[in-house]
Amino acid sequence: MRRQYGVLTMWSRINSESAFDRAVRDHDEAVAACGLAVWVGTEPTFTDRFSESPEWLSAALGDDKAARAEQLLCALQKRLGGVVLRTLGRLYPGENQPRWSLGLYARRDGDAIWSGPPDPGIGVSLDEIGATAPDLNAFRTSLCAGLQAIGYGARDCMDAQRDLKVVALCPDGDDSIPLNDPPLDPSSPSHADSGGADTPQTEDLPCLIISDMDWQGAKVARISLPDCGTVARFMLCLQAIGTAATDSGLSSLVLTGHPPPVDATVSWTTITPDPAVIEINMAPYPNVTELLAATRTLYAASAELGLAPYRLYYNGSVADSGGGGQITLGGASPQESPFFVVPRLLPRLVRYLDRHPALSYLFAHDHIGGSGQAVRADERGRDAFGELGLALALLERGPTPDAETLWAGLSHLLTDATGNSHRAELNIEKLWNPHVPERGKLGLAEFRALRMQHSPERAAALAA
């Protein structure tokens, strides 16, 4: 009887999951039938619910957290492919340096994006790395030749003081693929001559900076990437770097530097530290069905590493991980954002949320209210709320607002009491913000009043 009950329960669960998946597909088809493309992303957070270490209770940083994040990145890379990029995370007040950020950059069509040696943290043993220091000169020479072969005016420089090998990408190559500003300060020693009279200056040129770093007692090669501007240019750089690294015999290579450009053809997923959790900023997806599949992969990989979307309190309460479960809506590109395609959408959405406060609290985390992490407009004070009402009325009655007018009209009102837009229930700091370089004008609106969901299905239901 017990076995029969177990079989029936399993069969019921399978049918229930299939019904859920069908419901999500029906939802996506209904949205598509409206002629409006809405991309959706989320930022799940996970914790080690058995740990009493500070980094899993309240602190943002800790050695164990960095190691576990790297393990998760390795698990995702094996499942999803892509290339590992180690870029700089955010610098918070009171912290001496930016936090780490581990990223996975992949093509959405599934084609390979990287042909070079792997990142040393992704399943590379110390035996494979070897005891000999990498030959950076050979790497630099091969990279210069490879870049020149694809039309870049690359020239070879060196910084004797820091033993950096600098490949400056000159504008005298193919003008159709120029790069943007260099990642180095012009006063940096890397912009100085290496001593030779004929060594060209690299000031005002974007540079690929080659060096080595310690990795668990061994030396591995590292290259810092500049701002490549577009995905096509970044792909060309990756191809040249991968070929040069392989040809020069590197067993592993760490890619660091400027965050990569993104568009609808690539996905960029990052893992960063936050108080008590690690946060996975997932790449957005064109519908909830694809988001659900990606979220299931992430939850499964996290569970295998002992990372949970929830924690158990000593009083018996079951809570979320301690981080948020924000959901972001936008388009395939900033110009295709639904908030710009239908300019009245955002003001009406703000008004709808204001009139339905239950939606702010139904799935909210524990810290709500005027001092919380997702402050409603009516929790800032009556004066601010009245001003918001006037702004919404003017946006509704006046000419159809463009992207700049939408952001300027609402950004100073969708904040907490201190003016922090990142802590608003509806965060539009990446809608069309001219004050945030590169990442401010993305056409995005983020819903922050959502706790971390315990299952991929609940997360997908909220996204829908």
Pick out its properties:
10-stranded mixed beta sheet, 33% helix, alpha+beta, 12 helices, globular, disordered N terminus, single chain, 4-stranded antiparallel beta sheet, 464 residues
Strand residues, percent: 15-25%
Instruction: Find the count of extended strands (DSSP E, 2+ residues).
Output: 16
Query: In whole angstroms, how far apart are the ends?
Result: 39 Å
> Biggest sheet, open or closed, and with what strands and sense?
10 strands, mixed
Overall geometry: globular
The structure class reads alpha+beta
What is the residue-mean pLDDT, rounded to a whole number? 84
Q: Which regions are unreliable across 5 or more consecutive residues at pLDDT < 50?
A: 1-11, 174-202
Number of helices: 12
The proportion of residues forming helix, as a percent range, comes to: 25-40%
Strands in their spatial order, largest beta sheet? 2-11-10-4-3-9-8-7-6-5
Would you list the SSEs in sequence order as H and E? Answer: HEEHEEHHEEEEHEEEHEEEHHHHHEEH
Radius of gyration: 24 Å
Map the helices and strands:
Blueprint (H helix, E strand, L loop, with lengths): L1 H32 L5 E4 L2 E2 L16 H18 L2 E6 L11 E8 L18 H4 L6 H14 L3 E7 L4 E7 L36 E9 L2 E8 L5 H17 L5 E5 L8 E9 L2 E5 L6 H17 L5 E3 L5 E3 L6 E4 L7 H4 L3 H11 L2 H4 L20 H16 L5 H8 L15 E2 L17 E3 L8 H8 L1
Helix pairs in contact: 2-6, 4-5, 6-12, 8-10
